[in-house]
From TrEMBL, chains A, B:
PANTHER family: BLL6224 PROTEIN, D-2-HYDROXYGLUTARATE DEHYDROGENASE, MITOCHONDRIAL. It comes from Sphingopyxis panaciterrulae. InterPro entries: FAD-bd_oxidored_4_C, FAD-bd_PCMH, FAD-bd_PCMH-like_sf, FAD-bd_PCMH_sub1, FAD-bd_PCMH_sub2, FAD-linked_Oxase-like_C, FAD-oxidored/transferase_4, Oxid_FAD_bind_N. One of its GO terms (biological process) is respiratory electron transport chain. Residues 40-221 form the FAD-binding PCMH-type domain. Keywords: FAD, Flavoprotein. One of its GO terms (molecular function) is FAD binding. This is FAD/FMN-containing dehydrogenase. Belongs to the FAD-binding oxidoreductase/transferase type 4 family.
Length: 474, 474
């Protein structure tokens, strides 16, 4: 069990890190002690901001001597409170944001070594200067850091083609709970020297190691894209279309988002300067994007495939973006769903996954199950169909006081969603992680075999429980 | 520490598994107690051959009660003694070969669920009946089993495009050291519920869990292939060619093997019915293969790219296979290297990897380092250039008694190779694993941080050390 840091430890940490790297000033720490969603409010004995891997290792060694707890943090933009300390005021916040250098880039090998604190959007720009692209992006790109993205195995809208962070990490450097530095940055395509620590640290939410740098895979910068907004009858049909496009267009197909008409409707009602791409409306839409080299003639290829899908009555209607501005407008409709929904009132949000094949079934069946238990309740699914990952939002019945209804029934309704997901072999956290938000839920719903194994790994690597206590599993 | 099984435990195991699943007959066990290379000879208290996951779990629970050690085994075709019990006669050999069913195949989703004991070649045939292909193959495909391939994170000749086993495993079922069953078969593309146990079991050599089944990704059956034999000046040029072909041909490029002329020469001298594809000879060759749909016109695409490479003097000469028989003949040259080399006398074999970029440098510099320490010594590198993985073989000086020379100097010469690999950030085991063969080498040469972490994971998941003791790190 961790213990509160002694005044001597705090002095030593201050001496080690200097004024730039140490603060116990409440005002200076405040922005970093509340999570992005404003749901968790923590306290910290101090905020530590080391500038080098050596400093991180020295911090960990000092803290390990006293069993002091460390809570690593990147951009503080996580969705599950994974980077917020508890309210005891005895934990130490370890910010990686000062470690924000691009250490190296290899254009030939299409690899970059980048420190944990670099912000994703800055990394995008840095590699673009070399004619390359890092093919992972998400809403929080202006604040999310590389270390946080690795530690949460982040996803986003390009997972369909390029995978989650796990697939893009060629190497990792991390400080382990004993203060040693694991140097796994070398980008080995084959390495069978036992357990893959790199993969283990990916998605471990800072509970097993402090990621200080990563070697990341890059792809050539996309010179062209083609975007289509497609009207269709059901998620089932959307999956058929996805399979067809995947077989025909393969590596060019980078995005395939599923959107129900009710989501589009909310966007059109609440978000200024939006308009429906298709008239009349369809029950469901797919937003499809291809990316590739300049000479790929993506528009023509996409048009050919969609014309064939239309001919065989798989899809109801389609419009291709004529230029970048139209592409952006289509994506703005997709990206505004959460904002529009908030304007419609409170909702329960579930970030869940099931095997891709079963996603249409989940989307079709879950609203009925919910309505049987909670008459009038409304469910909306949208998102990454090709990843088997939807954002499944549940709204209170119309006409009731939404906040009061959610306070009374929200937890039970969410349980029903999660149990359905687990019945289908799915996950209660597709891309946001566990953190504080789902820690108790995981302990309640996951299989005893899996929970015991997770706890075994944690105990084996961090026996004193000093790294991010209270998150994920302990 | 494991203890010898009591007579009562053996009785209970026999009662559980019946005659088909239990044997303590020395003759029946003999073939499974010596490894494929004939290097390790073990003994076992009994051989257990459960037929179901439930039986495996029951075996593990019974053994855990007495701290009896289990050594899992698939096709017994590993290269590092990882599936051979020690010589004490107190370990139990756990064969998965009776669990050999294809449980399910989903043509739409291109996924198959297959039990651990199914032989790779049988699996190839089973999915081919569905118009699909499992894109991992290797020399031992007639005996290697799915469980062993998962547990060793097997590689092979198609890793360049499709990755090692790790990339092809969509789900895993395994029995953990406490006898619980981890059901991770659901093929979730996104799942952020903490540590990725599936990835942890991949390559763990049976030291953390007994893999009982896997859900594997498939690709459409290849309807066409194009094969070229290319003469060029150096590994450096070969890497440039690989980069060029990869950019131009992308997903079609499935094989890129590097072969020095001395390897080809040995094949031509020792293997009947072989002939050199090019005349006059070149210092190095690349064997390149594309695979794809029938209408891809692969030959034309490959010819265009290679003609351009020839025009720019990147390559010296090239011959394309005119038909399947010629393709097979080219691959036979590659696949016969080990056999030809054995006919030339004993050699030290090293299965090593470095970052792809550094491979030409390793190949260029290592022979000089060796010769400086051991005058007259000869080194040969061949294999998977694009994976940064060569088979680096070292032959004694000409004219000496090879066996005696190796006995005197072999270990020191190998140390020199491994230290060079580690200097370049590489791995002392690229694809064969650690097993017994490299256990002490790993403990000697790997970084203390990494070793401590490996030991922590092992202790956390298998505190009594019952799964495959004496292998990898234990």
């Amino acid at each position: 069990m961790p213990r509160p840091p002694s005044p001597q430890l705090l002095d030593r940490l201050q001496a080690l890190l200097g004024d730039k790297g140490f603060s116990d000033d409440a005002d200076a720490m405040a922005p970093w002690l509340t999570d992005w969603r404003g749901k968790y409010h923590g306290r910290a004995a101090a905020m530590l901001s080391p500038a080098t891997t050596g400093e991180v290792a020295a911090v960990v060694r000092l803290c390990a001597q006293e069993d002091a707890a460390l809570v690593p943090q990147g951009g503080n933009s996580g969705m599950v409170g994974g980077a917020t300390p508890d309210s005891s005021g005895t934990q130490l916040l370890l910010s990686l944001r000062r470690m924000n250098r691009l250490r190296a880039i290899d254009e030939q090998a299409q690899l970059a070594v980048v420190e944990a604190g670099m912000i994703l959007e800055n990394f995008h720009h840095a590699v673009l200067d070399h004619g390359l692209r890092f093919p992972l992006t998400l809403g929080g790109k202006g604040s999310a850091t590389i270390g946080g993205l690795v530690s949460t195995n982040a996803g986003g809208t390009q997972v369909l083609r390029h995978g989650t962070m796990r697939a893009l990490v060629a190497g990792v450097e991390a400080v382990l709970p004993d203060g040693s530095v694991f140097d796994g940055l070398a980008p080995l395509k084959k390495d069978n020297r036992g357990y893959d620590l790199k993969q283990l640290l990916c998605g471990a939410e800072g509970t097993l190691g402090i990621v200080t740098a990563a070697c990341l895979r890059l792809v050539p910068a996309a010179a062209a894209r083609a975007t289509a907004w497609i009207g269709l009858a059901s998620p089932d049909v959307a999956l058929q279309l996805l399979r067809r496009l995947d077989a025909a267009l393969g590596p060019s197909l980078e995005g395939f988002e599923l959107i129900p008409h009710r989501c589009l409707d909310a966007v059109l009602r609440h978000i200024p300067q939006t308009r429906a791409p298709l008239d009349p409306p369809h029950p469901w839409y797919a937003l499809v994007e291809l990316a590739g080299e300049a000479d790929d003639d993506l528009d023509a290829r996409l048009e050919t495939e969609l014309a064939a899908a239309f001919e065989s009555a798989l899809i109801g209607d389609v419009v291709l973006a004529k230029n970048e501005a139209e592409s952006d407008a289509f994506w703005r409709l997709r990206d505004s769903i959460s904002e529009a929904e908030r304007a419609d009132g409170p909702a329960l949000q579930h970030d869940v996954s099931v095997p891709v094949d079963l996603m249409p079934r989940f989307i079709a069946e879950n609203p009925g199950r919910l309505a049987a238990a909670f008459p009038g309740i409304r469910a909306l699914s949208f998102g990454h169909l090709g990843d088997g990952n939807v954002h499944h939002h549940v709204q209170p019945p119309e006409g009731v006081d939404g906040a009061a209804w959610l306070a009374a029934h929200g937890e039970d309704a969410s349980r029903l969603v999660y149990r359905h997901v687990l019945e289908l072999g799915g996950s209660i956290s597709a891309e946001h992680g566990i953190g504080q938000l789902k820690r108790d839920l995981l302990a309640e719903l996951d299989s005893p075999a899996r929970l015991a194994a997770l706890r075994g790994v944690k105990a084996g690597l961090d026996p004193a429980g000093l790294f991010n206590p209270g998150k994920l599993i302990g």
